[in-house]
Amino acid sequence: MSLVAGTTMKLKLAREVSPYGYFMTDGENEVLMHYTELVGHRPQIGQFYDVFLFYDSEDRIAATMKKPLIALGEVARLAVADIHPRIGAFLEMGLGRQLLLPLSEQPELKELRPHRGDEVHVILAHDKIGRLVAKVAFEEELAELAFRAPSSWQNAWVEGWVTKTLKIGSFVMIDGGVLGFGAFGFIPASDRTRMLRLGERVKARVTFVREDGRVNLSMHQRKEVGRLEDSDRILAFMKARQNGAMPYSDETGADIIKQKFGISKSAFKRALGKLMRDGLVAQEGSWTKLTEADAAGGRVEAPGGGARPAAGTNAAAKPGLPE
């Protein structure tokens, strides 16, 4: 019988060697269990105990009575405890020591790599020399553990962790809570508000529950809700400007709109359309202006959330353009 790191084995306590700890044996091989790895009562010589095998700081195989959060070949979601820019991320595995997720397992783009506090779905494996290492769990491993999303999730807001990010979109394992490991989802690139990093917790809306139990997700509100929120955001932005005007309109490029307001060009046009229908703004070429602002940009809120000119101002005056 061989002692394999990452597995739990029932070993016999052979002898105590002070000041180090106890030597456990499978009948052929011995492994040290340091005093710091004990749990519960003092163990007895000759008794059998379940211990988890790992490599210590000096790359020697060792034993512990502590229970790990992951075992060899298993998938688990582990929190990022620390980051080393040249080595990788260190994950908390429940033993008072950390598990390396090498840079080679992470996205090439630095901004897509996990941060401290993120939680990454990984598989416990061995590196080339047998040490324990984490490898990112992919769709095929996660799909076997996921449950089918119920149809009642349609339009519900859910939370989960990003398992992979591509140009076409991001894969997410939705938090299963008491139901189980989680449900598998996908956020298309057009439904992301930004690029998402590996292990990031994200909140998204279920837009479609597929026949196979997976779901499509969006980080955007439904159009009718989003239009109200976006129009309020744009109106507040314009009110904050000195002359109540902004150099953005239907003619503005999508990339500029995304950078400035964090929404798509189509969402921006929907919000502007609402504001114009409500008579709050008007477009002049590439500019959008408040329709009721005095030359100094002063505004007074009218009953019902509308706006009227400040007292003593010319209602027909048009705001000057900002520099």
UniProtKB/TrEMBL annotation:
<feature type="domain" description="S1 motif">
    <location>
        <begin position="155"/>
        <end position="220"/>
    </location>
</feature>
<comment type="similarity">
    <text>Belongs to the CvfB family.</text>
</comment>
<dbReference type="Pfam" id="PF17783">
    <property type="entry name" value="WHD_CvfB"/>
</dbReference>
<dbReference type="InterPro" id="IPR012340">
    <property type="entry name" value="NA-bd_OB-fold"/>
</dbReference>
<dbReference type="InterPro" id="IPR048588">
    <property type="entry name" value="CvfB_S1_2nd"/>
</dbReference>
<dbReference type="Pfam" id="PF13509">
    <property type="entry name" value="S1_2"/>
</dbReference>
<feature type="region of interest" description="Disordered">
    <location>
        <begin position="297"/>
        <end position="323"/>
    </location>
</feature>
<dbReference type="InterPro" id="IPR040764">
    <property type="entry name" value="CvfB_WH"/>
</dbReference>
<protein>
    <submittedName>
        <fullName>RNA-binding protein</fullName>
    </submittedName>
</protein>
<dbReference type="Pfam" id="PF21543">
    <property type="entry name" value="CvfB_2nd"/>
</dbReference>
<dbReference type="InterPro" id="IPR036388">
    <property type="entry name" value="WH-like_DNA-bd_sf"/>
</dbReference>
<dbReference type="InterPro" id="IPR039566">
    <property type="entry name" value="CvfB_S1_st"/>
</dbReference>
<dbReference type="InterPro" id="IPR014464">
    <property type="entry name" value="CvfB_fam"/>
</dbReference>
<dbReference type="InterPro" id="IPR003029">
    <property type="entry name" value="S1_domain"/>
</dbReference>
<dbReference type="InterPro" id="IPR048587">
    <property type="entry name" value="CvfB_S1_3rd"/>
</dbReference>
<dbReference type="Pfam" id="PF21191">
    <property type="entry name" value="CvfB_1st"/>
</dbReference>
